[in-house]
Amino acid sequence: MYFIKVMSKLYNPSRLLRPRYKHFESIEGVFYNNLNKYRLLSVNGFAINIDHLPNDTPFRITRFVRDPRDLVISGYFYHKRGAEPWFRFKDPSLKYWSPINGCVPEQLPSKTSFSEYLQKVPLEEGLMAEIDFRRYHFESLRNWRDHEHIKVFKYEDIIHNEAAIFNEIFRFYEVSEIERQIGNFWAKKYALGKVKGSKHIRNAEPSQWKKYFTPKVTRYFNEHYSDVIELLGYELT
């Protein structure tokens, strides 16, 4: 959300001008179909396949990763309070959740929304349901390839260091000096310490999973995604 806000201010400064930046959620096909329409595009929840990018178009990709276990904690509390309509909809289907790349947990009862379910069950069951909800997202993390034009940033390195990281991002993008200066201005303005009342922010600190993961939840997660933890460079304990 921070990236979206900064880049929207930089590349979509006025409704009178054609937008040069757009975020496509997890809608993979629409993303690839719009590659040539914008200066900058962003997505979440799936791996970008560089073989689908135009051969004659130079590209730079910044990839932002976070400890998947912290994503579970963040998502659990966000979905539990039903912050968006996706999670208040009763009997969600894979088709309904496809724009957010969500998987319907098998344990979700009929005629129940995901938010309602998380509010009813104990924390341990809710966290395992959240792990199941993120199945396609976590599986996609295995599909990213290394490339000289893909630069990876860890969430833990960005928090409380946002302005410096965005300056590095703009240099990696090789944008003009004026774009970099304007972008850095908005990066500083919307840095975490200056944001108040955002519906997306509960607790931005890393390693929260250590407080909430029980041995049962840890085993459940590791049975499915321990390799993802290692791929992203995090420790299993």
Give an overview of the whole structure:
With 237 residues, the protein is mainly alpha-helical. The chain is 45% helix and 7% strand. It folds into two domains: 2-65 and 149-194, no CATH class; 68-139 and 205-231, no CATH class. The chain has helices spanning 2-11, 28-33, 68-80, 94-97, 114-120, 123-133, 135-140, 155-158, 162-173, 177-189, 209-212, 215-231; strands spanning 21-23, 40-42, 61-65, 150-154. The strands form two sheets. It has a two-stranded parallel sheet. The chain has a two-stranded parallel ribbon with strand order 3-4. Helix 2 (28-33) links the parallel strand 1 and strand 2. The two termini are 28 Å apart.
Topology:
Layout (H helix, E strand, L loop, with lengths): L1 H10 L9 E3 L4 H6 L6 E3 L18 E5 L2 H13 L13 H4 L16 H7 L2 H11 L1 H6 L9 E5 H4 L3 H12 L3 H13 L19 H4 L2 H17 L6
Parallel strand pairs: 1-2, 3-4
Helix pairs in contact: 1-10, 3-6, 6-12, 9-10
**Helical run tally:** 12
Poorly predicted parts: none
Structural class: mainly alpha
Q: Main sheet, how many strands, which sense, barrel?
A: 2 strands, parallel
Helix content: 40-55%
The end-to-end span amounts to: 28 Å
